[in-house]
Amino acid sequence: MEFDPKTPQFLTSDPSSFASVSADDRWPVIITGAIDDLARTVNTVTDEEKAREGKSIIEKLGTLKYELQHDRQLSPLDDDGESDIASYNEELKQRGNPKWHDAPWLYSECYLYRRMETFFFRSKHWKGYDVFARQKMSTFKSSRPAVLELAARYRELAHEAESGKGHDGMSAEQIEEAEKLLFTEMCEICLWGNATDLSLLTSLTYEDIQKLQGSQARQASQKNIIVNDLEAAFNVMQKARVEKKDGDRRVDIVLDNSGFELFVDLILAGYLLSAGLATTVVLHPKRLPWFVSDVTPRDFSDLLNSMVDPQAFYTAPDDTGKTYPALSAKEVEDVQFLFQQWSEFHQDGKLIVRPHSFWTTQGCYWRMPHVAPELFEDLKESELVLFKGDLNYRKLVNDAQWDPTTPFTTAIGPMGPKSGIRVLAFRTCKADVVVGLPAGEDEKLRQLPGGGGSESRKWAWTGKWAVVSFSDGKV
Question: Which of 206, 385, 395, 460 is the least buried, fewest Cβ under 10 Å from its Cβ?
Fold first, then answer.
């Protein structure tokens, strides 16, 4: 806490904030979903000892839900042998052992998922079990139309790049402008992939997911990017490509959600490598199940495995017995083209998966230079570090009650100017905190239907609006 900014954080006790909505409405649903998932698995277990232990974890999840709904104090985490427990408990003590409904939102939400994980870490038979895995892959299957659309589009672009046809008869300036437009398209695909966040959208139907994805939805949402620093990000990458033509040019992506969002993250990574804007892309997943749908290393392999035989994956009946039409031969080839390319990048050391324990700590990224200095120094080696999604954004700015006109470079503190790190944040807004807005923009958005008016910043809760914020810490 000593390294955090002094600006107060959002609290679960603030009825005008999404923090209160999360504690009251979202978290009990998430815990209930975890209980249901584990119960479903336990019912298939034949080993009596494992089944008993699974039922014991279900009881612990039930106790956690009871404490949350009855506003008990957050209790110290049980030691599960992992190095972060002491830090969680020390901070809990420093914060005065708050109750669930009067606690800093960022800390208490991280605590929630970390406490759930202690139940599994401390078990004999359930270590590594992910209560969200089934839900993650089901949602990715529901993303079929958007996956097929993007796979076809990407394959077409890759063939154009290989043949050089796309730049026939163009001047150097025209080629750069065309590349900038393509970079923008790829980044916007990656940005809006964040709309499918399972920790928020707990009752999505197959049809709802399809409406959130696809080119028409993205085009309609372009006007909703209220801060857009993509051009500045492209310019530094283009400059690096020229100045370090034969050198290593690394891009890091601090991942957010698995499933469709991880798919579009890989689309972007593949594009950066194919276009020569990067020579290496390092992906940073979480090391444990986190905020329902965040990427773990296993999610990365699950996604690739689903693409080995897309016909089988996308036509298999779901839990209700509903069947799905077969993919065309071209659709199968498009998906398998991506699988082949990504696999080759991974095997060649150009696409690297690198988890780190810091990403599931309870604090903001202002702490990184002090509590994870080796990670901070490593990120300086990157040309650009892309932070995906709402939680990464909240952690960059400490989920603090900044004035919305506060510059992004100010709000990210030690990650900002002169840090040696170029930060690019892709975020569809699903929490109150927002910075870098022009004067009057927040007030204007509040006056829209459902915008919150003078009472709250509800416009920033829904994922309808987005920000793309850049800080060049290498200047």
Answer: 206
In which element (H, E) is residue 199 found? none
* Predicted pLDDT of residue 193: 83
Q: Are residues 125 and 22 in the same domain?
A: yes
Whether residue 11 is contained in a domain is answered as no
Contact residues for 179 (Cβ-Cβ < 8 A; gap 6+): 234, 238, 275
Q: Are residues 94 and 154 in the same domain?
A: no
Classify residue 415 by burial, with Cβ atoms within 10 Å: 0-12, 13-18, 19+: buried
Contact predicate 460/21, CB 8 Å:
no
With both helix axes pointing from N to C terminus, report the angle between 105-121 and 27-42 in degrees, rounded to the nearest 10. 10
Q: Provide the whole-model pTM.
A: 0.93
Last residue of a domain, one of 131, 151, 171: 131
**Pair of tokens at residue 97:** 């052992």
Question: Do residue 231 and residue 256 come from a single domain?
Answer: yes
pLDDT digits over 431-475, tens only? Answer: 999 999 999 999 999 999 999 999 999 999 999 999 999 999 999
Strand partners, 283: 253, 353
Question: For residue 172, what pLDDT is reported?
Answer: 84
Which segments of 200-259 does DSSP mark as H helices, in order?
Answer: 206-212, 215-221, 230-243
User: What is the tens place of the pLDDT at every residue in 251-298?
Assistant: 999 999 999 999 999 999 999 999 899 999 999 999 999 999 999 999
Q: Which residues contact 6 (CB under 8 A, 6 or more apart)?
A: none
Q: Is 102 found in the same domain as 198?
A: no
How many domains, the chain?
2
- The pLDDT of residue 407 is 98
Domain membership of residue 351 as a residue range: 138-472
